[in-house]
Fold each of these.
Amino acid sequence: MWEFKGLRRPLRVRRRTHGKPHPQMLLEVMEVLGVEPAATLMIGDTEYDMEMARNAQTPALAVSYGVHAPERLLQYGPLGYLDRIADLPAWLNTRGIGSNQATA
């Protein structure tokens, strides 16, 4: 079963932080939530998101409904590529890390 931690309200990081692809934002979120990079999935629609995940040493999942073309995202070796976020639970389940139940 997978769990969304700390998402009952917007999660904020320090006001002054490096921009993407620097990993600081993602590292701070992981620190606040108390999760390790291996237990984190960065979902993004830009190559900067993919590069930030790489820099934070977290797995990444690319999505097609954003800014950059698939070719630009796939060059970073994401674990997968989704056309709809609604497909995320099934994608997680196929990897044995998900379930149809999530807690917030």
Note: The longest helix spans residues 24-33.
Amino acid sequence: MHIREFNSVLSHANGTATNASAVALAGNADRAYLLIQNQDAAAYVYTRTDGSAATANGACLRIDPGKAWEPKVVPTGNITLISNGTAVYHIVYA
């Protein structure tokens, strides 16, 4: 098992997820950290990490209002997001 040392500067991205899938963070083979926070009080954010379009159904990970997702295995593909409304999100990555 290879454990990757994390000594990167954290970067931040903010945006609004709507009912149209969009790339929120471009793919990066060297990505070492990822956290996606749904800052909305009511709308869900659905995310997909393989570069495919996000959909508001079981094919994507749902992030509930006010919650965050911090994967233990960091995906390196495009991060796409969609919402069942208009949801503000915040991404922390390295």
Note: The chain has one domain: 14-93.
